[in-house]
Amino acid sequence: MEAVSPDLLTTDTESWLEQHERKDLLRFITCGSVDDGKSTLIGRLLHDTKQLLDDQLAAVTRDSRRWGTQGAEIDLALLVDGLAAEREQGITIDVAYRFFATARRKFIVADTPGHEQYTRNMVTGASTADAAVILIDAQRGVLTQTRRHSYLAWLFGIRHVVLAVNKMDLVDHSQARFEQIVENYREFASHIGMSSFTPIPMSALSGANVVEASSQMCWYAGPTLIERLESLQIDADHLQRTPLRFPVQWVNRPDSGFRGFAGTIAGGRVRKGDRVRIQPSGRESTVSRIVTADGDLDTAIAGASVTLTLADEVDVSRGAMISAADSPAEVADQFEAHVVWMAEEPLYPGRNYLMKIGTAAVTASVTDIKYQVNVNSLEHVAAKQLELNGIAVCTLSLDRAVPFDAYRNNRNTGSFILIDRYSNHTVGAGMLDFALRRSHNIHLQHVDIDKAARSAIKAQTPCVLWFTGLSGSGKSTVANLVEQRLHALGHHTYLLDGDNIRHGLNRDLGFTQADRVENIRRIAEVARLMVDAGLIVLTAFISPFRSEREMARQRFSPGEFIEVFMDTPLEVAEQRDPKGLYRKARAGELKNFTGIDSPYEPPEAAELVLSTAQMSADAAAEVVIRWMRARNGAA
Amino acid sequence: MHIMREVVAEADNPVMLYSIGKDSAVMLHLAMKAFYPASPPFALLHVDTRWKFREMYALRDRVAAQSGMQLIVHINPDGVARDINPFTHGPALHTQVMKTEALRQALDIHRFDVAFGGARRDEEKSRAKERIFSFRSDQHRWDPKQQRPELWNLYNARKRRGESIRVFPLSNWTELDVWQYIRLNHVPIVPLYFAAERPVVERDGALIMVDDDRMPLNPGETAQLRMVRFRTLGCYPLTGAIESTATTLTEIIREMLLTRASERQGRVIDHDDANATMEQKKQEGYF
User: In the predicted model, what is the mean pLDDT of chain A?
Assistant: First the structure.
């Protein structure tokens, strides 16, 4: 890589452009707290690499007078703090991306906030970064947040860390102070397995050792920040040396004569004639063409967007992966992974989420939180649920097997996001560590007598009537009446009642949200076994969350799960208060009580809605029986 | 290209907003590449204010014909009925009715759930924090607090019925990247980007081109022929030209890198006095 003289732009623009086109791109993040001078550092990088234009400079000069914290000086931080809300609070609350270039490289810097409550913003920036610049205030040294940022950067696979010891001007450019900080940091770094880092003493405010070497710190002979960023190795180079991974995005079929698989190479390289394996199906074939709009290629490397055609007619669709036949990805449906939680509503083990991994989308649930990592002390702590910004090592179970690599080997094929099925928000991000061995060893046992055979003997169509509603809405009462009538009609039934189950099977569960999720998961499993046995099952549980009712529904065949919503206003249920529970909850003696300090999410499309405020329990039971008769003539 | 394919794989009814500017030209060119040898499986949508430069309309029709894609042109009929124009009603109302409202109408009428746009993060401060997949409520509002985190290259394009997504495939491109792409790939662009002698009047420090006879001249004002070009293109009465002699792509890039004034400066719309006005416009549904 040759340095490009800025003068060349004036004298020979054509050559300058050719050189500029050959520059590679480095993405990095900056981490530090509000007061460490992070925004000032980025402003300084933009300013000193001459990325600022006249009108932007004029605007920041004007803004400095209005908002600035640097007196009469230009406050370079104002260049960076974009959204109006942030200006008012004086802190950065999101990830902002900035662009600049030097003679050697192009850069994208993700400016991420420092506070612990913004961990999710930081990991968003870290997920695509090649390097991290971790700011330390030379006056304050290595802080808790320095450790947190370093751990997160390292966890997310960033292998180039620059320790920017900032505000050296405020400690008299003291070499002793600098070395003391570096020594402290080194001790911590070895603790998290960080094998190397580059410490640089600097002052973002004056620009010392940012772009230009400092005259006040002659004792420092290392690179300036920009020199370091210009020379470190980017991840793309590393990815090219890994085995071929090509997640199929889209099947390109303009006419019957062409069938290509479009995607971006996630690892390694592909050559015409390469033997490949389609995963998870395991079929093998040979690459016959590498198609692009600019003509066919003989070879393409990681990062390239291409369309592959194969020599054989194999079934390949979106979500499949084309891998090197001699070095394929692993395929599994149970994993251990690091998960970062990004939503206000906590992660509950047992709840189903949509997982996007590569181009595949599957249903996934966390089966166990092994431990949560305290991001400040790095201690392992037990957890039953994972709150916003929490990081934990979890085991996950998927509804089908997917191809993957460990995150440390390939960030593209070892990363996933979790999506809430109702809000559709991205609620979690994860990095796969390894597949669980039990996923290879447990297989479903085939049995000859099936549900159809068992229900035929009973001459009934098995199903579950899932009563849901507030405490006091009449679930147990109505379910009881319905069961009596079904029994009188000669049906084999079983009523699973909330209070009764909690005395036995679920005796170990409390009323936290996490325990409620597990409660419902077990009920759903038991109900499913009973339906499989040919019974008509009635369940009477508050089951307040849509996600869990949906999870239960998915355990049954279509039409088997009948959601019965007891639509009773809170005031009415509270007035009834048959067990005196509302009174206790209002008095603060009962925590996490649905309707009072724990939410109830009403069904959006229940099969049956009973307004029990307006009808008697008998009338409600009659509605259910009539509905079932109408449904299949025989109940 | 990765982003465009993700959208096509997951959206019900995507569309590409085509503004005829250089960013749109690059975006369309990338789409042709991403789906080659097939044609991009979506239509182009041009939200027309009726006040674009004539050379823009000419390029639009030519490019649409060559691409083999369907071109949908939408003009706000209420705006036409009220004869909204930038002279009588001022730039703010004109933009509100003919761009912001018109865009919403077009998306609603055709039930597009995902729209590609050519915005870049380097254009303006509030854009720097825009996601690549930007969610809009069923009222087309943008809520900076409700945007989804984007990790790795895993994009979450799931949404409820009625919600829509604006997708910005060029988010991480700079102005220089755009020009270099045009240069290397010979992407056709509107000739107005190149310097030529054009009739202009000077108003409030901006050089406005007299593109047709709908433009009322103030007393004593006459159009002068000056050597000018445009760095961005919009409605001609709202787009300031710069004096320039750059007649080739290389000269344009050289001029851009040596002149120290940012791209959107020529646009009248960004220069309201209030802070962060672009953010407000976006919350209301401006692209």
Answer: 85
CB A265 within 8 A of CB A304: yes
**Which residues numbered 9-38 in A keep a CB inside 8 Å of some CB on B?**
9-10, 13-14, 17, 20-21
Q: Which tokens hold the place of A465? A: 């009537």
Render pLDDT for A482-526 as a digit per residue (tens, 0 to 9): 999 998 888 899 999 877 788 888 888 887 778 888 888 899 999
Mean pLDDT across A520-547: 90
Q: Is A381 helix (H, G, I), strand (E, B) or coil?
A: strand
Assign A252 to helix, strand or coil: strand
CA-closest candidate to residue A251, choices A276, A278, A274, A272 = A278
Half-sphere exposure of A570 (CA within 13 A, CB side): 13
pLDDT of residue A4 exceeding 50, the answer is: no
When CB atoms are compared, the residue of B148, B150, B265 closest to A55 is B265
Q: Does B172 touch chain A (CB under 8 A)?
A: yes
Distance CA B118, CA B170 (A): 6
Q: What is the pLDDT of residues A432-467, one digit of tens each?
A: 998 886 555 444 556 677 888 888 877 888 999 999
Is there a catalytic annotation at residue A473? no
Beta pairing partners, A610:
A566
Q: Which of A47-51, B31-35, B204-208 has the lowest mean pLDDT?
A: A47-51
Label residue A446 exposed, middle or buried (CB < 10 Å: 0-12, 13-18, 19+): exposed
Beta strands at A321-324 and A275-279: parallel, antiparallel or unpaired? antiparallel
Q: Which of A543, A598, A611, A616 is catalytic?
A: A543
DSSP code, position B145: G
- Two structure tokens written together for A503: 């005395």
A120 chain-B contacts, CB cut-off 8 A = 149
Collapse the DSSP code of A86 into the 3-class scheme (helix H, G, I; strand E, B; otherwise coil) and give the result.
Answer: helix
Helix (H, G, I), strand (E, B) or coil at A292: coil
Which regions of B39-160 does DSSP assign to beta strands (E)?
Answer: 43-47, 71-74, 114-116, 133-136
Q: Say if B164 is an interface residue toward chain A (CB within 8 Å).
A: no
Q: Which of A284-288, A540-544, A545-549 has the highest mean pLDDT?
A: A284-288
- Amino acid letter for position A311: A
Scanning chain B, the segments in alpha helix (DSSP H) are 2-10, 22-35, 54-67, 77-81, 86-95, 102-110, 175-185, 249-258, 277-284
pLDDT at A168: 93
B61 pLDDT band (50/70/90 cuts)?
very high
Give the Cα separation of A166 and A146 in Å (integer). 13
Q: Is A179 helix (H, G, I), strand (E, B) or coil?
A: helix
- In whole angstroms, give the CA distance from residue A405 to residue A304: 19
Angstrom distance (rounded) from CA B238 to CA B230? 12
Q: Which amino acid is at A566?
A: M
Q: Has the ipTM of the complex gone over 0.90?
A: no
CA distance A103 to A50: 11
DSSP 8-state assignment for residue A213: P
pTM for the whole structure: 0.74
Tokens of A281: 């199906």
Does residue B280 surpass a pLDDT of 60?
no
What is the arrangement of strands in the sheet containing A131-137, beginning at the earlier edge strand? Answer: A96-101, A105-111, A24-31, A131-137, A160-166, A198-201
3-state secondary structure at position B136: strand
Tell if the CB–CB gap between A412 and B152 is shorter than 8 Å.
yes
Query: Does A123 touch chain B if contact means CB atoms closer than 8 Å?
Result: yes
The winner for highest mean pLDDT among A72-81, A267-276, A377-386, B45-54 is: A267-276
Exposed/middle/buried for residue B205 (C-beta within 10 Å: 0-12, 13-18, 19+):
exposed
Work out the burial of residue B66: count CB atoms within 10 Å of its CB; fewer than 13 is exposed, 13-18 middle, 19 or more buried: exposed
Tokens matching residue A104? 């050697």
In this prediction, residues B17-34 reach a mean pLDDT of: 93
Q: Is B6 on the interface with A (CB under 8 A)?
A: yes
The residue ranking higher by pLDDT, A89 or A35, is A35
pLDDT computed for residue A421 by the predictor:
86
- Within A346-446, residue ranges assigned H as helices are 438-441
